[in-house]
Amino acid sequence: MKPLVLMIEDDPQIRRFLRAALAAEEYQFHEALTAEEGIAQAAARQPDLVLLDLGLPDRDGLDVIRGIRQWSQMPIVVLSARGQEKDKIAALDLGADDYVAKPFAVGELLARIRAALRRAAPLAPDGADTVIRFGDVQADFEKRLITVGGEEVHLTPNEYKLLQVLIKHAGRVVTQRQLLNEVWGPQHTEQSQYLRVYVAQLRRKLERDPARPRHLQTEPGVGYRLTLDS
Amino acid sequence: MASPAEHPPTDETAVDFAETEPLRRSASASWREHGLAVLIVGFVTLIALVLRPYLAATNLAMVYLLGVVAVATRCSRRASVMASFLSVAAFDFFCVPPYLTFQVSEYEYLITFAGMLVVALVISAQTSRIRAQAVHAGDRESRTKALYRLSRRLSTTTRVFDAALAAAEVAQEVFGAPVTIFLPENGRISFRKRTSDQLLISTAEEEIAQEVFDHGRKAGKGMKRFPDAAATYVPLKGATRLVGVMAVLSGPRETLHEDQQHLLDLFANQAALAIERTQSQNAAADARMQMETEEMRSSLLSAVSHDLRTPLASITGAATTLRSQGEKLEPAVRDELLESISEEALRLSRLVGNLLDITRLESGMELRRDLYPVEEIVGAALQRLEPQLAGREVAATVPEDLPLVNVDDVLLGQVLVNLLENAAKYSPAGSAIEIAATATPAAVQLEVRDRGPGFAEGEEKRLFEKFYRGKSEGVRGAGLGLAICRAIVMAHRGSIEALHREGGGAIFRIRLPLDGRTQ
C-alpha cells in the first residue's frame, strides 16, 4: 500500500500543488487546515508522514510537533519560510525530521519525504545495512573500516562516531545540537565550535574538495546533512 | 550640548559684580580718584616747601602745574579741576608771602594766580579729553574684541540652542553679569528652552520676557517699562522675525550705563542674526534631507516595482498561454514556458529575499556570531549556488591553517552568495570564477574574482550603493546584492572593496578583522 501523507497547511494554493505532486507520486494524502485539526487527524489517521506548515492560523506549528511527539515517532517534514533559521532549529530539536524552505521545488520536497520515510521504514533496522557507499567513500561499520577510493582512511574515535551519526540520519538535516548530543553526550550540546572543527576534519579526509563538499553538506545556521547520492 | 542644569544655580550667582567689570565705572572709583588728586597736590606742596628757600615763588607755581598734569593724566576731569583750584589755593597759602595765610603781599601775585589757574584748567581739560579719547578707543577695542569673539563662536554653531548658548556665554563674560537667552516655542517664550537657570523666574519676570518678545522692545531694569525688574530684557531681532529674548541680570543697585546698553544692543543684534541663520540653515538641511529621502523612496519604488513586475509579467504570460493554448503548443515550447515560470518565480523570490534582508540589516539586525571555519561558509555558499554555477570552473582556495572567523554564518554566507551570483551574472558563461581566502595577523581576507568586463573607473564606491546598477548591458537586477554585502560586512566591522583585476575582470575583497577572538 502507498504511504499516507497528512498535510497540515492552511494556504489553498500550496495545498493545491502539493496535492498534485503527491498524487503524481501515488502517495495517499489527507489535508488539515489548522493545528488543532492536524493533531486530531494525526491521531485518527495514523499517517506514515506529516507535512507541516509552521505558519498556521490557530496555533504555532511547533505545538503540532510537540503534540504528535508525545505519542508517536512518525516522520514530520516541516515547511518553513526562508530566513527563519531559529524556527527550523526549534522544529528539528522538537523532533521534526527535516524541513524545506519556501519557496521550494517539488523535486526537493519529494526527496526529503523519501528520506524521512526511509528512516522510518521497518525493513532496514539499524546495522542491517553495514556497508554504506557515497562518492569514493565506503564505510563498513562491522569491520570499522573506512576507505576512500580503496585507500583506508584513519578516523579518530570522535570522527568515526560523527560519521556514524550522520550516516544514520543520511539524507536528513541534523541540527548541531543533535549531533553534539549523539556524539559527545548531552552535557556538550553548546560546544558547536568543536563540532565544526570535527566536521572540517572529516571533510578533509573524505571529500575530494573540502571547500566544495558533495556529501557532507552544511545547512547554514541549522546543521549538517549527509547526502549519499549526488 | 550643555544643559541649562549645568550652569551654577541662582543663588551662587549673586557675585560681586565689581570683580568682573571691564566696562563699568562706579561711585567708589570716583572717590578714589578725588582722593588721589588731593594726595598729589599735598605731595607737590611738600616739594614746594622744600624748594621754597631756593626758588622764586613764580617758579614754584610751575611745580604745582606739574602736579596738575600728573592728576589730569590719571584721574577724571572733575578730579583734575578740583586739583587745579586746590593747587592755586595751596600755592597761595604755602608759597606766597606772607606764608600760612591767603593774604597776598604784592598784588602782582594775583596775575600769577589767574595765569596758574587758567593754565591748570586748560591742562585738565585737554589731558582729560585725550584720556577720554583713549578710554573710548579702549572701550571700542574691547567691544570690537567682544563682538569678534561672539561672531567667531557663533560661526561654528550648527544648532539653534548652541548658538543661543554661545551668545549667552560671551555676553556673560563681557558684561560680567549672568546672561540668559530665552527661545520661543510655538510663539511663546519658553522656559524649557533657555540657556541657563541663572535668572530666578517669577511669574512677573516671565511676563516681562513675554511682553518684550511680543512687542519687540527692550524693557526691565533701568528702562521706562518695568524698571523694577531683576534684569534687562532685550528682544533678539533677526532680519525677518523675533527669535528670542536676552536677559542680563545685574546687581541690586546697578543699572547698565549708556555704553553698555549700546553694546548690549549690538550683542543682541548679532546673536539674533546668528540664531536666525542657524534656524534657516537647519530648515534648509531638513528640507534637503526630506527631498533626498523622497528621492530615495521614489527610486526604491520605481526599482522595486519594475523588478517585481517584470517576473510577474513573464509568469502571468507563460501561465495564461499554457492554460488557453496548452494543447496547441509543441511540447518543447510548453517546456520552455514552464521553465520560464519557475525561473522567474525564483528570481522574484530572490528579490523579495534581498529586500527583506536589506530592510532587516538597516533596522539594526542582531548578528548571531560564532566561530566558523571559512571553508565551511565558502562550501555552503557554493552548494547553494550550484545551479547558477553549473558549467563553470570554480576554484576555491582555502588554506587549512586559516583561523576560525567570528561571524554570523548565515549572513556571511549571504555575502559570498551575492558576490558569486554577481560574478556569474556579469562574466561570460563558462568563464572561471575564483574564490580565495588568506590570513593576515589581524584579519581574514576573502576574494571573489571573475573574468567579466569588470566595472568602470570611478564606480568602485558607487557599486555598493543601494539600487545602483553597473553599466553592463543586458544584466537584470535590482542593485541590492552589493549593498547587502556591504551592510553585512560593516555589521561585522569588516570592509569590502571592488578592485580591477589584472588581465580583465573584477575582484571583490572582504576583510574580516580577527579582533583576538579566534583560535
Q: What does the model show?
A:
The complex is a heterodimer of chains A (230) and B (519). Chain A is an alpha/beta fold and 230 residues long. Chain A contains eight helices and twelve strands. Chain A has helices at 12-24, 35-45, 61-69, 85-93, 106-120, 157-168, 176-184, 192-206, and strands spanning 4-8, 28-32, 49-53, 76-81, 98-102, 131-134, 137-140, 145-148, 151-152, 173-175, 216-219, 223-226. In chain A, the strands form three sheets. Chain A has a five-stranded parallel sheet with strand order 2-1-3-4-5, sandwiched between helices. A four-stranded antiparallel sheet of chain A has the order 6-7-8-9, with no helix packed on it. In chain A, a hairpin with a 2-residue loop joins β6 and β7 (137-140). Chain A starts with a strand and ends with a strand. The mean pLDDT of chain A is 88. By secondary structure, chain B is an alpha+beta fold. Helix content of chain B is 55%, strand content 13%. Chain B has helices spanning 27-51, 57-74, 77-95, 108-155, 160-175, 203-215, 258-325, 331-362, 374-384, 386-389, 409-426, 481-491; strands at residues 179-185, 188-194, 219-220, 231-237, 242-249, 370-372, 394-397, 405-407, 433-439, 443-449, 495-500, 506-513. In chain B, the strands form three sheets. Chain B has a five-stranded antiparallel sheet with strand order 2-1-5-4-3, sandwiched between helices. In chain B, α3 runs antiparallel to α4, α4 packs antiparallel against α5 and α4 runs parallel beside α7. The longest helix of chain B has 68 residues, at 258-325. Chain B is elongated, with a radius of gyration of 43 Å. Residues 1-25 of chain B have low confidence and may be disordered. The chains are: A alpha/beta (230), B alpha+beta (519). The interface between A and B is medium-sized, with 23 and 31 residues.
